[in-house]
Amino acid sequence: MIASPQISAPAQLFSINKEIELLVYCANTKLDPEIVAKIKQLVTAEIDWNYLIKIAIWHRVQTLLYSSLKETCPNDVPQDVLAYLHSHCQKITLNNLFLTHKLVNILNLLADHDIRAIPFKGSVLAASAYGNLALRKFSDLDILVKKQDIPKTIELLQSQKYQTKGYLTEARQELQEVFCEYSLLSEDGRVFIDLHWEFTPTYFAFKPNFDTLWERLQPISLAGHDILQLSLEDSLLYLCVHGCKDLWQRLSWICDIAELIKSHPAIQWTELLEQAKKQGCERMLLLGLLLAEDIQKICLPEIVQQRIAQSHIIKVLATEVKTRLWMHIDEPLDVFERSFWSWRLAFHFRVMESWKHRILLCLFVLRFAITPKDKDYVAVPLPNSLSGLYYVIRPIRLTMKFGLTPLKRGLDWCASWLSDRQ
């Protein structure tokens, strides 16, 4: 019934688009009477169910969509739509359980060899924020360890038939050091592991001390096993930073924040704000919280609302995110990439608080642009003696493909932001 999503939607507020409005209302675990009434009202309208399912899959909230529709108005939804969602979500549930089992095994393996490991996102977040492994789709395992433990951890995972991802270029491998993570894949291709020693790339804020994180860990039961997870404050701060790092492309990331807050009213907000300021990512935290408030209608404490009200740039960025959230249009890929990468540079430049990180960002963009990738080696095969020429070929290929428009647009956004600050 449903093919791989090629999504086209007008750049409108979600209240104007019935399908988007319905999706946002359904993307909740706690449905109050007002939301239930809205869902029932929208379902009786002329809904493009094919489009609704496509955007739900893109935004990774198809499990929430199915759960809410089944709970509120199963008889008003076309039975083939409900059957498709049931089958699709059943596969997600089985895969989530499978990955959770693998995660527990890996954590036990590392603990047996005295390696401290912190799982985050994935099944841990599903259990903590949603209270149900079936309600949040995830496809990989994210684990944080100390950098000094990375070689031993990789060796142990390789003994369990996990293999590190190979690249054609040494330069591409070096970029893993920038992103502070290594990727491993199981022999059967079913389990993908992101092994981190930092939460964010070298050019990005939020580098908490591992030992400090470890001291604040909290227990959680996961598929019948007791494991340790990030504290509520550390988890919420990470989710906001992660959303900013990846440009808030998915509604599910905003749902994660809202659900975590709704499930845990005991969050220490003053401590959280102080920690964010210390880590240089208060703006990212406030942006994530504002998006959750605006889209998921959560209630934020007064101290947070006051901080948001004091920052004009947070409101500007939130407006841009909400506009682009529904703009994954099915243009040719190179056209989409031109817009995406130029906005990425400008967004990161403005959401960062320190000039240190902005300078590191610019250096990374330059390095990323000139560092040869696997496609360059395939497109223009050269003998090893001439491999240095790839550093010239790479920027030429990028210019031929994208032109200078992405760079110019990104610089214009940054210049506009600088002028607003004067």
How would you describe the overall organization of this protein?
Mean pLDDT is 87; it is low at 1-15 and 329-338. The chain has 20 helices and seven strands. Strand 4 and strand 5 form a beta hairpin. The chain folds into three domains: 14-88; 89-324, Beta Polymerase, domain 2 (2-Layer Sandwich), CATH 3.30.460; 333-421, no CATH class. Helix 1 (18-26) runs antiparallel to helix 2, helix 6 crosses helix 11 (251-263) and helix 12 (269-279) crosses helix 13 (282-296). Helices cover 60% and strands 7% of the residues. The longest helix is centred in the N-terminal third of the chain and has 34 residues, at 79-112. It has a five-stranded mixed β-sheet with strand order 1-2-5-4-3. It has a two-stranded antiparallel ribbon with strand order 6-7. The chain is an alpha+beta fold.
CATH architecture of the largest domain: 2-Layer Sandwich
* DSSP strand tally: 7
The biggest sheet amounts to: 5 strands, mixed
Secondary structure: helix percent: 55-70%
- The rounded Rg comes to 22 Å
Q: Based on Cα principal axes, name the global outline.
A: globular
How many helical elements?
20
Output the CATH class name of the largest domain. Answer: Alpha Beta
Give, in spatial order, the strands making up the sheet with the most strands: 1-2-5-4-3
Supply the helix-strand structural class: alpha+beta
Q: Give the topology string: H per helix, E per strand.
A: HHHHHEHEHEHEEHEEHHHHHHHHHHH
Strand content: 5-15%
User: What is the CATH T-level topology of the largest domain?
Assistant: Beta Polymerase, domain 2
User: For the residues shown, what is the average pLDDT?
Assistant: 87
Quaternary class: single chain
